[in-house]
Specification:
- By secondary structure, this protein is α+β, with helices and mostly antiparallel strands.
- Helix 2 crosses helix 5 and helix 3 crosses helix 4.
Amino acid sequence: MLTPPRTVVRREGGLYALERALQRRGFRHVAGADEAGRGACAGPLVAAAVVLPEGRRGEVEGLADSKLLTPATRERIYDEVVSRALAYAVVVVPAHEVDARGLHVCNLAAMRRALASLGTRPEYVLTDGFGVDGLGVPGLAVWKGDQVAACVAAASVLAKVTRDRIMVELDGDFPGYGFAEHKGYITPVHTAALERQGPCAEHRFSYINVATVSGRAGRPPRARRPETIGVPEAVGRPGPAGGTVGVALGEQLRQPTPVGEDVAMEGGVR
C-alpha cells in the first residue's frame, strides 16, 4: 500500500492555511468548534461550530481569535460569519447544568451537539485545544486553534458574541453584579459583588469562589448548588428540565444564490 504524501501547512499561509490544506486533500467541508465561558463563574457555557465556504467566499476580513478583537469588531465579524457560513450552530449550556454534570463533560457535549447540528455535514473537524470523539468523521485538536484555523476562529466569535449578549440581558435580570461589564468572569468587581450580595441563580456553585461565599464549599462540587435559589419572576428561563438548549442554527445554500435560514430551539423555524 502506498503511503499518501504528507500535507505541509506553512505558517506564512495565515489563518486559512490549515483548512486550505485539508481541502486540497479532499475534505471540502471543514468544521471548526470552540466555546466561550469556561473560566466564568456565572452565566452559561456556549459552544459553536462553523463550516466556512471554500476559497475567497469563506474569507472574513479581520477574522481572529475572539479574545483578541474589540466588542464592535466581534459584532461585525459575527454578522459576516453568519451571512457567509455554509452552516453554523450555537449551543447554550445553563449554569445549573454545568454544576450538575461538570464543566468538561458539558463542554465536550456542547461542542459535539453543535457539530451534529450543522446542516452541512463536515468531512473533517478542527477543535480548539482538545479533541471531541463520537463525531463519525476525522478530526484534529489544534493548540490555540482559534489563532490557527479560520473555522475555529469563526466559531469562537459566534460563541463569544452569543454569550456576551446573554450576559448583558442577565445584567438586567440580576442587577448589582456587573454582568454586562465582566460577563461573569472573576474580576475584583465581580468578587466584591458576590461578597456583598451573595450568589444568584446564574452563578456556578461548583466553582470554589461561589461555593465559599455561599457557605457550601465543604460539599463536593456537584452537590454545592442549592435546590432553590431566588430568581426574579420576570426572568422566566428554563429550569433544570430544560437541559442544553440550541439557540441558533443556520445554513446557507451554495447555489445559485446564498440564502440564509435561522432556526431556533432545536429545529423550530423562526
